[in-house]
Structures are given as C-alpha cells and as structure tokens.
Amino acid sequence: GEQDVMAELTRLGEENESLRAKVTDVEARSRRSNLRCFGVREGAEGENVAEFMTELIKGEFDSLRGVDLGMQRCHRALGPIPGVGATPRSIVMFFQDFRIKEKVLAEAWKKGRKVMYGGKRLYFDHDYPAETLEKRKKYAPIRKCLSENKIKFSTPLPAKMKVFFEEGTETYASAEEAREKLTAKGFTIEEPPTARREAAPATETRRNTWQRAGKDKDGDVKRRQRIREKLRVFVRD
C-alpha cells in the first residue's frame, strides 16, 4: 500500500543522503592539505606553477620567507581557459605538511585585503568539495549584511554560521536558516544573483535549525522529517 511505498522511499532517501554525506566527508579529508588561491591572472604563473606560488607566498608573508613550504603539487583548477576579462581559474596547491598549509592560510587571512598580485587582490581558502563550496557560497550576501552592520561572525566547517550578537551567540545550520532568522530580526539581506524563488513545503518554512551555542541538535531527526515531507508531496502528485 501507500504506507509501505512511503516507508521504503523514506529509507532509500535517508540512505542516499547518508551516503552523500559520507562521500563529501571523505573528499574533504583527502583535500585537507590543499589550499586554493583565487585571483592570479591566467598565464602569470608561467611553466612552473609551484615555483611561482612559492615565490609569491614568501614575498607576501614575511613569517614564511625562511620556511620550507614543501609544496608537492600545484596546478590551475580544471576547466577551459577563461576568455579575456573573465575570472581566472583558481590555483590549487598541495602541501606535504598540513600544518604548513594552515600557516599559509592563517597569514593570508591575517593580511586580508593587502594580499595583492599585479594590482589585483588575491584570496586564499581551503580546497572544499564542490557540494560544500556550493553551500558556503550561499552565505555571501549574509556575510556582506553582517559586515556592513559590524557584527562578528564565523563560518565553521563544513557549512554552518556562527553570529556573535551582544546578547549571545547563535549558530545556523544553513544559509537558508540564517537568512530566515536574521530577516526576522530586522536585517535586510540581498538575494543571491542566481537565486531561484521556489515554494517550499510549510514544514520547511517553519523548520527551526538554529540554536544557542553549546546546545546539541538532532540533525538525523530533522533530515528524516525533510525527506518524508518531500516524499509525501511526490506520492500525492
């Protein structure tokens, strides 16, 4: 009957989400010694990308000039070469020692807007799996809003957000929940350029996945509720 079909579809949905989460986690672990640099003009690296990035890093960060970076591999991100005026592909660096990679990233974040090459600002970040990167990109307009309002925040891995209000710290499980709760507080957040407005089930709209710092949240229960609601809509249709 319909209940048996719902039960089996729910089980398969839960299993699929669990497997996807495990694959993303394994991929993230395999990339933990990788670092990405954004903004270097295409072709500026010449034939030896590792040598170019080693010289760039040591030239930008005084504390790393005498350090053996141990950069084992370095290449442009895969994909077609962008046209003139388009955003250049990022450069991916693999470090032999995870701790060195963390030092480079810490120095880059400390220097902030002053990391430059060829008159352009450079950005350094972790090498996230595609799924994680897509989730983190959704926070961009939220980060902009908080920065403009001089409110401190952080984005813990893999794709959460902590906001440090005067009255206490709040943790949001997704960009969607961060947007919902901050809007309710009176903040105006721009829509992402590629955002598509879609009607969500009522349970999704009401779902409250933010929490005060230090409190646990039963993510498995929430995930099952989300899967079941989507399946109910599917079966009805």
Write a structural description:
The protein has helices at 2-30, 49-60, 98-111, 130-137, 140-148, 175-184, 202-206, 219-236; strands at 34-38, 71-76, 91-95, 116-117, 120-121, 123-126, 152-154, 161-165, 168-172, 211-212. The protein has 237 residues and is α+β, with helices and mostly antiparallel strands. Helix 1 crosses helix 8 (219-236). It is globular, with a radius of gyration of 21 Å.
Write the layout of secondary structure elements.
Blueprint: H1 2-30, E1 34-38, H2 49-60, E2 71-76, E3 91-95, H3 98-111, E4 116-117, E5 120-121, E6 123-126, H4 130-137, H5 140-148, E7 152-154, E8 161-165, E9 168-172, H6 175-184, H7 202-206, E10 211-212, H8 219-236
Antiparallel strand pairs: 1-3, 1-6, 2-3, 4-5, 7-8, 8-9, 9-10
Q: Evaluate the radius of gyration.
A: 21 Å
The residue-averaged pLDDT reads: 79
Major sheet characteristics: 4 strands, antiparallel
Residues in β-strands, percent: 15-25%
Task: Please provide the ordered H/E string of secondary-structure elements.
Answer: HEHEEHEEEHHEEEHHEH
Fraction in helix: 40-55%
Total DSSP helices = 8
Q: Low-confidence stretches at least 5 residues in length (pLDDT < 50)?
A: 195-217
What is the 3D form? globular
Structural class of the helix and strand makeup?
alpha+beta
Structural key phrases:
single chain, alpha+beta, four-stranded antiparallel sheet
Structure summary:
Helices cover 44% and strands 16% of the residues.
